[in-house]
Amino acid sequence: MGRVAGSDEAAVRVRAAELGDASDVAHLLAELGYPCSRDEAAERIAVVRHDPRQHLLLAEDDGDACGLVSLYTLYSVVHGCELARITGLVVLPDRHGRGIGRRLLKEVESISRRSGVRRIEITSSPNRTGAQAFYRRCGYLDGSMRFIKALGD
């Protein structure tokens, strides 16, 4: 696809991650603050590819992986509907401001609509103020506070 003047977003290709993308996925997860090896990334891709409720998408710009989003859907008893949860979204820093994050969100929203999802949730660490501002600009609203308890060994 050729570039459209003034629209870097149009040149971005979004596709499902494949096992051969493990090195790129590992790099992007490390950029997000969740480092893993290529082999660990390959295992994660395999899990997602075999679960119809999960999606792992890569954004490519000129053939280079530059962004990633992970999504899973579930039925919410509380809301009485299917909902989607974005569990990770990252764009390489040198590609910020080019519409790649928006393109990934649009694809997630499209997948979610086709799956009958009526609500999408995104969590963000309190210190990721830039990400939070981005989500708000994309139409996402502040929601509930999330609590976490790690289950140790």
UniProtKB/TrEMBL annotation:
N-acetyltransferase domain mapped to chain residues: 12-153
Keyword Transferase: yes
Protein keywords: Acyltransferase, Transferase
Domain of life, source organism: Bacteria
Pfam families cross-referenced by the UniProt entry: Acetyltransf_1
SUPFAM superfamilies for the chain: Acyl-CoA N-acyltransferases (Nat)
PROSITE patterns recorded: GNAT
Name recorded for this polypeptide: GNAT family N-acetyltransferase
Lineage summary: Bacteria, Pseudomonadati, Pseudomonadota, Gammaproteobacteria, Lysobacterales
